[in-house]
Amino acid sequence: MIETNSYKDDDLLELLKKIWNGKLIILFVVLFMMLCSLIYIKSSHQKWVSTRVVTTIEQTKINEIRYDIIDNSDYFYNNLMFDNYLLPATFLNLYINEFNDEKNKTTFNNQHQIKLNNIDTLAVKKISNISYLLTNSSSSKQKNITILNDYDKYINKVSREKWIANLKGMIKNNIIDLSYNLKAEKVIEKTKIKLAIKNTENALKIANIEGVSSPIPDIDSTNVIYPISLGSKILSKKLAILKALDKDKPNNIAIDKSTYKLDELKNIKLDNITLPSYFEFINSNNIESHVEGPKKTLIIVLFVFIGLILGSAIVLIKSKYEKYHD
């Protein structure tokens, strides 16, 4: 029994000796595998972070909704409503990357002067300074990252959870406000059209009775309740256009579509993220991927371990081959 253990110990020592003698080969294999790990990390389409920020699916959906609503704003007489609700000031933690646009910086500044009253955990002066810097800084990415880092460090000194809750509350309230305003705008537009139809119908009746078929240039139609001076022919065309608008008005379509999109937006989960990390994530070349990747060090350690195993195996196979030929 003792001899058996002795033989096992001798075999183990012999094995370790062979591995040690082949240390240069093992070192070469380990270095080669380490190089492979670095190449893999560099060429991988994954975003190498320990925690996923926002998936590309979420980001794409949010952008589609936002741009869709902004496109629809062209249908409205006054699209300032959209500027107030849909630019990065509202969705600060989702669209921080858009501060490269001067208009968005200005909107960020103006919007937060109003909204800061709702965030009692933040110092108004500090945030005003940050928003001023964002408004007046150059569009360089590094400058914005520096400012956002400063902003984020300050946020971390106060209650982050409360800040996140307030920010999400702001977003939710803005969505509710916008939905309400969209519906109100729809009612106003409908009312305007119906009033115009009624006035035009009355004017057409009077024009027909009076025999006014062509426009009368000497009368200013803006000074009368019903624009009789336009004549029955033009009034008939105007009435047809108004009725068509009342039936299927682009404004109503845009409002309904935007309201529906806002309902979609409510269902998108917002992650508690830090501003600089998202800023860097959204501007990285790995935006196509939404797969969470392991940390770089973990990949390197794994490849080194594989290198040790592979190197040792090569040394032992080489030793056995040499022994066989001897």
UniProtKB/TrEMBL annotation:
Source organism of the structure: Photobacterium iliopiscarium
SUPFAM superfamilies cross-referenced by the UniProt entry: Bacterial polysaccharide co-polymerase-like
Positions of transmembrane segments: 20-41, 298-317
Keywords: Cell membrane, Membrane, Transmembrane, Transmembrane helix
UniProt xrefs under Gene3D superfamilies: FepE-like
InterPro entries linked to this entry: LPS_length_determ_N
GO CC annotations on file: plasma membrane
Record-annotated Polysaccharide chain length determinant N-terminal domain positions: 11-61
Pfam family, one: Wzz
Protein name: Polysaccharide chain length determinant N-terminal domain-containing protein
Cell location: Cell membrane
Protein topology in the membrane: Multi-pass membrane protein
